Structures are given as C-alpha cells and as structure tokens.
Amino acid sequence: MDLIPSQEDVCSLLKQTGAWRHGHFVYPNGLHASEYLQVALAMRHFEHLKTLSVGLSRKVRANSELRAMIPELSIVAPSGGGLPVAYGVCEALRAKQVYWAENEGVDTPMHFRQYFFQKPGEKVLLVDDIFRSGRKLSQLKNLIESNGGEVVGLAVIVYQPTPHTPDFGSIPLYYLAKLDSLYFKDADTCDLCHQGMGLDSVWV
User: Fold this and answer.
1) What is the pLDDT of residue 14?
2) Domains in the chain: how many in total?
3) Angle in degrees, CA 125, 149, 96, rounded to 5
4) Is residue 2 part of a domain?
5) Bridge partners for 75 per DSSP
6) Which of 123, 171, 176 has the alpha carbon at shortest distance from 150?
7) DSSP letters for 47-90
8) Residue 1 lies in a domain
9) Residue 193's pLDDT is what?
10) Which terminus of the chain faces fewer neighbouring Cβ atoms within 10 Å, N or C?
11) What gap in Å lies between CA 21 and CA 184, rounded to an integer?
12) In DSSP terms, which residues pair with 77 in a beta bridge?
C-alpha cells in the first residue's frame, strides 16, 4: 500500500475489517441507507490506524499554507472515533498538540473540559474518522470559533455525505475515500423497505 492509500485500498481495508457494511439501515435522524460505515472497526487494528492516519497527514501536508502552520497547529477532534485519528495525524505531522470536545448526550451542547480553551487566533485542524451528517464537526467548529480559534482545515478518513451534510465553505477538506451511499428520507420513500429488506438501526 502506498504512503497515501488509494480510494480502492481504503475501501478494501474497510470491507476486510467489517467496517463497511451493505444492507438496509436507518439512522437516528430517520434517513434510510443502503450502506453503513463504522471506521472504528478498522482502527481497532493498530497497523490499519497507522496506515490511515499517516496517509491522511500526507494529504494535509501537501497544502503549503497548512504545512507552514504545523509547528503551531492544534489537532482537535470530537471525542470518540475521531480521537485515534487525531493522535495519529498529530504524530505524523509533528503538530503542536491534540485535544478534544465532548457532550453528555445527543441533544446537549459540545464543550471542552475544564481549562481547555483556544488562544486568540489559534490555528486548528478538525479531525474525525468520518464526515457524514457533519453534526459534531459543525458544533465543534462553532465552539472553536466562539473561543477565538480559527479552523483552517478539516481532515477525515472517509467522506460519506448525506443529503443533509453541511458545506464548510472555503475551509479545505481532506479525506482518503469518498463513499456515495443510496439514501432515502424515510420509510415511505425507501425502495429497500418496499422490497421487504430487513432493517438494522444504527446508533450514529
């Protein structure tokens, strides 16, 4: 596998580890989909995490503006699946620091732990394992900017947009693979429901 794994390499790894599943799934927001991806199933193997995070770091490093920021760059993630990627990317880039935000529940605001805060003008690279709904990444971006930080890039292992995925505007987005799944807005419009396929509910 190359230093920056290809789309085909990443998809093969996700399939081999059971992280990429095909079937009939319903998300908490009501969307039905033909595929479900849980990158953590691939990252439980350290060698895969290393391959993916180093590859992602090289995509970031290819941007000359971001490369110049690396000595002072903060790598920030939502808690959970984004943390292993954030540490792997920080190590590969030799960036300044890693920290994360969290929330106590789906409907509670995201926050940093006590004494975690951004310095005015702090350059931040947002990192996560997957960019799908974009809910956590949007909350994290807003939180960082409200504290005076500046989000200069977004880096994820997999970009799997839904019909509701937000646009981060001019902020550069880096990913190793893009998956275009088939989505339906609800059970009434879902072809898979009409075909009588069994339904799996996913948590995130």
Assistant:
1) 94
2) 1
3) 50
4) no
5) 98, 125
6) 123
7) HHHHHHHHHHHHHHHTSHHHHHHGGGPEEEEESSTHHHHHHHHH
8) no
9) 94
10) N
11) 17
12) 100
Per the CB < 8 A criterion, the answer to whether 44 and 67 are in contact is no
Close Cβ partners of 89 (under 8 Å, ≥ 6 residues apart): 53, 56, 57, 60, 75, 95, 125, 127, 155
- pLDDT of 29: 84
18: in domain: yes
* pLDDT number for residue 109: 85
Q: Which residues of 124-163 are buried (b: 16+ CB within 10 A; e: fewer)?
A: bbbbbbbbbbbbbbebbbebbeeeebebbbbbbbbbbbee
What pTM does this model have? 0.91
Mean pLDDT, the chain cut into blocks of 10 residues (204 residues total) = 85 94 90 91 93 96 96 93 94 96 81 88 96 90 94 96 88 95 90 91 81
Specify the pLDDT at position 64: 95
The pLDDT value given to residue 79: 82
Domain span at 187: 7-201
> Do residues 138 and 111 touch, judged by C-beta distance below 8 A?
no
With 0-12 CB in 10 A as exposed, 13-18 as middle and 19+ as buried, what is 36?
A: buried
Structure tokens of 59?
Answer: 């995509």
Q: What is the pLDDT of residue 156?
A: 97
pLDDT number for residue 104? 78
Within 13 Å of residue 104, how many CA atoms lie on the same side as its CB? 2
Q: What is the CATH number of the domain that holds 125?
A: 3.40.50.2020
- Rounded (5°) CA angle 169-82-80: 130
